[in-house]
Every structure is written in C-alpha cells, then in structure tokens.
Amino acid sequence: MDAQRNLEHVLRAAREVFGELGYGAPMEDVARRARVGVGTVYRRFPSKDVLVRRIAEEETARLTEQARTALGQEDEPWSALSRFLRTSVASGAGRLLPPQVLRVGVDVESEEQRLQAAVPDRARVPQQRQPGIGGGQLHELRLVEQRPTAVDERDDAGAAALLDVVGRLVERARAAGELRADVTVADVLLVIATAAPSLPDAAQQAAASSRLLDILLEGLRSRPVQ
Predict the structure, then answer these.
(1) 15-37: per-residue pLDDT in tens?
(2) Which of 62, 135, 169, 219 has its CA 20 to 30 Å from the CA of residue 44?
(3) Is 104 contained in some domain?
(4) Is residue 4 assigned to a domain?
C-alpha cells in the first residue's frame, strides 16, 4: 500500500514539476514535491528518461481522449475545437507533451512515411493531410526517432492517434469556414502548450489562463472577406 501511495505521489509531483518547469527539471525537484527521498523516485523509475516517458505517454493519451470527447459530443465544428482547447488548457496536459513532438517546417510526405514506418502495422493510425498549404511545407507534428525500442513504438503510436483525432477537429472547423485556412494541427497543439505566467493567486492564475486562451482562440478564427 505504501509503495502504491509513493508511486501516486511521485507521478503527481512529476506532472506538477514538469508542467511548471519543463522536462529539464531535476529528479530532486520531483522527489521534494512528492515528499519522498530521491532514492524512492529512482527505485520506481531507474532514469529520468523513463519517468519523462511515463508522464508524456499518459498526458498524450489524456489529450487524445479529450479530443475524442469533444469530437463526439459537439455537433458544431468550432464548438468542438474550442471545447477541446479549453479542456486541455485547464488540465495542463498540453504543457506535458513529449519535448520532441512540436516542430515546424516539416515536409509532410517524408514525415508521414517515417511515422508509419516506425509504428507496427497493428498500431498504425491514418495520418491527416492539411489542405491549402503550398510548397509541401507546413507546421506539423514531428516525432524524432531516437531508438528502435518498443517504448519508442508506443510513443509514435500515441502521437499518431493524437494527430489523427485533433486533425479531424481541425478539418471540420476549416471546412465549416470557422478556422483560418493556414492553421494546422501543430498550431493547435502549440496553443494548448502555451501557459500563462505563474501567479501566486489561484483566481488570478485562472483568469490569466482564460484570457490568454480567449486571445489565442480569436487568432485561430477565420475572418470574413471585406
């Protein structure tokens, strides 16, 4: 029971610390927040990389589920996209995406081929192409292949699932004329990864986060031609 409780404390602390300071935060900070010795953290997670992967995998899955919920429960395309963004920002999951996920200027064809090759056939998810972008270059999710291990395959499969469902939210909003034509999946993920400055008062923090998201959402919406 104590071991399970310590694990829950460590995971909760890791989400908080990495969410506030990024994945560069030391394991000692996680241990201090969890109120356990750093040795306890290392007994459950033999390296920081293992802990980071655990948190990133869980938060990627959480974002995917939030996107699926919005897609399934909101009939209006813009309402579905904005619901996903608001829910994700409130949960803080966007700030815990794997550090290698967001890249810009990635060639679509080569990236899709690399991602599909990295994921086993049984775990593959169709990729969403983004229309209306010229030159074969766009902001897109990119996964940097590190090592051909089962963990990496799960990372790729999880990111592919997230890309697929968020891509459907983006495509629906764009087709309805409510989303700017140049907005991509990576742009949406950048929005949820953007946090308001940390404020000591919880109410002020919530208000600042809400205001920042309102501004970012307004920037995503299409404008009627004058």
Answers:
(1) 999 988 888 999 999 999 999 99
(2) 62
(3) yes
(4) yes
